[in-house]
Amino acid sequence: xxxxxxxxxxARLAQAPAEPAPATSPxxxxxxxxxxxxxxxxxxxxxxxFVLRATEVRAKPSSESAVVMxxxxxxxxxTANLVLVLERQTVxxxxxxxxxxxxxxxxxxxxxxLQALCGYETVSTHLFVDTKRLRLRLERRGRTVLRxxxxxxxxxxxxxxxEFYVRNELRGFDSPIYGPVAxxxxxxxxxxxxxxxxxxxxxxxxxxxxxLPGRVSHGCIRLRNPxxxxxxxxxxxxxxxxxx
Length: 244
Hints:
Blueprint lengths: L1 E2 L33 E2 L7 E5 L4 E4 L8 E5 L10 E10 L2 E7 L8 E5 L7 E3 L1 E6 L4 E6 L2 E7 L1 E3 L8 E10 L9 E8 L11 E5 L9 E4 L3 E2 L2 H10 L5 E4 L1
Parallel strand pairs: 10-19, 13-17, 16-18
Antiparallel strand pairs: 1-14, 2-6, 3-6, 3-9, 4-5, 6-7, 7-8, 10-11, 11-12, 14-15, 14-19, 15-16
């Protein structure tokens, strides 16, 4: 029960900012490396991409660098997997992209070859979650378009803090505890969550609105159903999330 955009054609990569041309290598032993080019976070714009093929993520932009994780083409919910794209760098003519990763430890990033992804999509939304004040705020182009009171993880199952992104939008749950719509995120709990499959943090509705706001979940972020419906109208997949 998932809704997700179709992968963009590879031609969309031409929409990204231009990067400096590589300098001439003085010798075959010296790698030609350009300066990284930021692709997200400038001018209230962020880029994301579908994973075109399963690929190994590297610690540095090099096929000889250590493997951080392996990205799959599908999420645990069987939707098309996507990553937030942070910057691009060219090494010896090979373009690499630094992406935010759905793995522990949270806030991890790594490098994948450009060919492993399926073009860029762009969003201008940014979701902010305040676990201390139990509030959520969605911005579009730097302007607040939604505020809501929320439920977060209990002390023994805290909602993780850091930088994340929306992986998918889900509907049609058999159980009413998730409400009418839910979002899967790249955030993960090292303890437990009430998200299907465990581990990943979801943002979803509830069948118990009276307990919100509060520290009521196993890590997921809960909204009253009218608020999650509003959020679904305003927030596309790929939206970056800042949890503090």
